[in-house]
Design brief:
The protein is of the alpha/beta class. The protein is 36% helix and 17% strand. The strands form two sheets. An eight-stranded mixed sheet has the order 3-2-1-4-5-6-14-15, sandwiched between helices. It has a seven-stranded mixed sheet with strand order 9-8-7-10-11-13-12, sandwiched between helices.
Length: 368
């Protein structure tokens, strides 16, 4: 098969979908890999490293897409790439279609077999391709929030660690999954006063067992959310419903009751956000104010630590890609239930129930 890895064009998206080691594994399995020139520069990988691993280096994005059986990306195709896609091609990338209905319709209309990293799901409900990026985003969320709490960045001038005789900053985390758990880890390490809320007592119990009295755990009901959000110096949105739009847990009125200079980092922004006032931003223009509260809504947070993210993503995605090229995509989907759950569009139809529900569109279950 012919695998193409285009250069990402989303603003400040410096990740690349394959490392040289990934290229070598595919080439040694008997397949052709094309990398767009400069695709790895943002992750510190030169064209020559890809070439030594066996890749062909191609300068034109249009040519990259034209020759591909499988297109492997990091982020969803932007509108300027849509015309490059051809019926029957396979697209393997993060998609988050619940937040971009026009992209979903285009993939259906062009009969693209689109497999989304974020909906590849194991039998236990875990998300192996989203997991490493969620770990990174969760850890970054506290780092980013601490930065914007500085007075010169628009924040209230709070140090999360506090100081002798001064209380530490209050961090409230909505969601105790991968993002939330990793945010807890960094917030505790920085010495913050941490409260995490979730609807799953098992998740809360695991965090409580690990951190003990260093954190507070609460069930995520309306009363507790309202009380804790108003006290937060830093609010982290870490809610995920795989494939579906994130539920809005914090409405506009509640944001208006937060103290001026508080910071919201809504990691759920890829799926629409769990705070009503969240909207997507970019690394070039990451923040904005609503009711004097700083909002950070960058939809590709791990792109800021691109080298770490690139290697972590390839470590997780490569086994699935190797299955597709060795067995053929149809057989790989038929034989791997986790990969099949990642199928969002195929044959001119939506194939994922949560995506269809979020977009209020019909869908059909896929069968080989």
């Amino acid at each position: 098969m012919r695998i193409a890895v285009p250069k990402e064009i989303k603003p400040r998206e410096d990740r690349v979908a394959l490392t040289p080691a990934g290229v070598r594994a595919l080439v040694e399995a008997g397949h052709q890999v094309a990398i767009q020139s400069g695709a790895g520069i943002g992750s510190g990988i030169a064209d020559e490293e890809f070439r030594r691993a066996g890749a062909e280096i191609i300068s034109s994005a249009a040519e990259m897409f034209a020759i591909a059986d499988i297109i492997v990306k990091v982020k969803e195709p932007l509108p300027e790439e849509w015309d490059f896609l051809q019926p029957g091609q396979v697209l393997f990338t993060f998609l988050h279609l619940a937040a971009v209905p026009d992209l979903a319709r285009m993939l259906v209309d062009r009969e693209i077999t689109a497999i989304a990293y974020e909906t590849v799901e194991l039998d236990d409900g875990s998300l192996p391709l989203l997991h490493p990026m969620s770990e990174i985003a969760g850890r970054m969320a506290i780092q980013v929030g601490a930065h914007y709490l500085q007075k010169g960045e628009g924040g209230k001038g709070v140090l999360l660690a506090g100081a002798p005789g001064v209380r530490p900053g209050r961090v409230v985390i909505l969601g105790a999954g991968t993002v939330g758990g990793n945010a807890v880890r960094i917030a505790v390490g920085m010495g913050a006063d941490v409260t995490v809320l979730d609807i799953d007592p098992v998740r809360l119990g695991a965090l409580d067992d690990h951190y003990g009295n260093r954190i507070h755990t609460l069930m995520a009901n309306a009363q507790d959310i309202e009380e804790e959000v108003q006290k937060a110096d830093l609010l982290i949105g870490a809610v995920l419903l795989p494939g579906n739009r994130a539920p809005v847990l914090v409405d506009r009125d509640l944001v208006s009751r937060m103290e001026a200079g508080s910071v919201i980092v809504d990691v759920a922004v890829d799926q629409g956000g769990c705070v009503a006032t969240t909207r997507p931003t970019t690394h070039d223009h990451p923040v904005y104010l609503v009711s004097d509260v700083v909002h950070y809504g960058v939809a590709n947070m791990p792109g800021a630590v691109s080298r770490t993210s690139t290697f972590a993503l390839t470590n997780s995605s490569l086994p699935y890609l190797l299955d597709m090229v060795r067995m053929g995509v149809t057989q790989a989907l038929a034989g791997n239930r986790a990969l099949a759950r990642g199928l969002n569009t195929e044959g001119g139809k939506l194939r994922h129930p949560a995506v269809a529900k979020a977009l209020d569109l019909p869908w059909e279950i896929w069968s080989p």
